[in-house]
Write a structure and sequence with these properties.
Helix content is about 20%, strand content about 40%. The chain has about 450 residues and is of the alpha+beta class.
Length: about 450
């Protein structure tokens, strides 16, 4: 009798385990956070009638669910309830004190830039779309203020900028104003090269307008009005780069090829190796899906005799700098980084936070981003989540037209029914390859 009861209890225990939901995030029952929302997602069976803090939660046909809860400062209880019981998760939220840091004015002080590719920013924030130039190591600058971890850089009476303190070395040695030496230009079939030479390295900015680019070099030690402007016309599809040899700046604008068989396209499968990327509702890892899509994009492009370079073809660790270097070393015309999205510290809306979005940083990549948003959503059947600007390391270089495609949301239950389907993987890849071909032929 006792054996029978034990078997019966064991059976009901096993059944409850079969029915129980599985939470992918959070991984802990107790959590400390500064976020405004607790984001919970995982998988369950529709028969479980899942609720979170009394709100019914949608469960997709494949079992995926996601929900967010608004948090207040202090302890928050999040109760997940099903027909088979409930589970309580605790979040302790703190809001960091925000202290406005005042700008401290300084006497004009000379400084050197420590290394190449140092961002010159329009505001003292180490994030966002505020880069207005990338200075070379050894550049002479003048600073006249400080705020937090940044120095204010004096460029001219009408222009100031900001640079991270860690990127420069202040000096009390005497500087002498740079001398302008000469300016020259050359035109080629598919490129234009402008040079301007000074007796030493100076700070500069780049403005990419509708019809031309303006390359400005500043010589603040000479006078507060000493600004040299190069107005450089640009073709419809273009890439550009700036080099510096001693005090000689070379600004090269090249027209991207109109022959797709001559084009070089770099396909970048985001993340890889120990960097998993986003984790989906069903426990899928973003890096694997990125690679599946990327491999199929490459195969489709090769059918059109397009020169394709992959940043990674297997599950391997690869630094962002290495991905950029692969593109530059192969003289890429187009660079497409493939990702899947996740939801940040915002209210969860399964009907809005889903679909395909495409990011670009430089103006020369905007047209490619707009084309890919159309071709991917039409082919893959995803919602248009928009073309947006984003400061991602792999698409910041100007040497190619670079975009980052977020094909779908890993953490949206509706999208999870798509990206876990092999047919959808192919449709997404076809949308990306179609967009690249359309852009090259445009």
């Amino acid at each position: 009798m006792r054996r029978g009861i034990a078997l019966l209890l064991s059976f009901f225990f096993m059944m409850s385990q079969v029915q129980a939901y599985q939470l992918i995030m959070p991984t802990e029952r107790k959590n400390c956070t500064t976020n405004d929302y607790a984001f919970l997602y995982g998988k369950a069976k529709s028969a479980e009638a899942l609720t979170i803090n009394g709100h019914s939660v949608y469960i997709a046909p494949n079992g995926a669910f996601a929900h967010s809860v608004k948090l207040h400062d202090g302890e928050n209880r999040v109760i997940i309830r099903t027909l088979y019981g409930l589970m309580i998760y605790k979040y302790f939220k703190t809001t960091p004190a925000r202290q406005e840091i005042a700008v401290e004015n300084m006497e004009f002080t000379k400084a050197y830039v420590n290394h190449d590719n140092t961002p010159l920013r329009s505001e003292p924030i180490d994030a966002g779309l505020n880069r207005i130039g990338h200075l070379f190591g050894g550049t002479h600058i003048v600073v006249n203020g400080s705020k937090g971890s940044f120095y204010r850089v004096f460029l001219s009476k009408d222009k100031e900028a900001w640079i991270a303190k860690k990127d420069v070395t202040l000096t009390d040695e005497e500087f002498y104003p740079a001398e302008f030496i000469n300016m020259d230009s050359e035109r080629f079939k598919n490129a234009m090269i402008q040079t301007i030479t000074f007796s030493k390295k100076l700070p500069y900015t780049v403005e990419d307008g509708e019809k031309e680019m303006i390359f400005r070099v500043y010589n603040p030690e000479l006078s507060e009005e000493s600004v040299y402007n190069l107005n450089i016309p640009k073709p419809e599809k273009y890439a550009y780069n700036i080099t510096l040899d001693e005090g000689k700046y070379t600004f090269k604008v090249r027209k991207l090829t109109e022959n797709i068989k001559e084009a070089v396209v770099v396909i970048d499968a985001g993340h890889g190796g120990s960097e998993k990327g986003a984790i989906g509702c069903l426990g899928d890892e973003e890096k694997d899906i990125n690679l599946q899509i990327a491999n199929q994009v490459a195969a489709l492009l090769k059918k059109h005799d397009i020169n394709v370079v992959m940043t990674r073809e297997c599950d391997a660790n690869l630094a962002l700098e290495d991905r950029v270097n692969i593109a530059k070393e192969n003289f890429a015309d187009v660079f497409v980084s493939i990702h899947l999205n996740s939801i940040g510290d915002v209210p969860m809306d399964i009907h809005k936070k889903r679909g395909t979005s495409v990011y670009y940083f430089n103006n020369n990549s905007k047209a490619l981003a707009e084309i890919l948003e159309r071709t991917v959503t039409r082919s893959a059947g995803t919602r248009e989540d928009g073309v947006q600007t984003g400061s991602f390391a792999v698409i910041r270089p100007t040497e190619y037209a670079g975009v980052l495609v977020e094909a779908a949301y890993m953490t949206n239950p509706i999208d999870s029914t798509l990206y876990t389907n092999d047919k959808w993987i192919h449709k997404a890849a076809k949308g990306i390859s179609d967009g690249i071909i359309q852009y090259l032929k445009k």
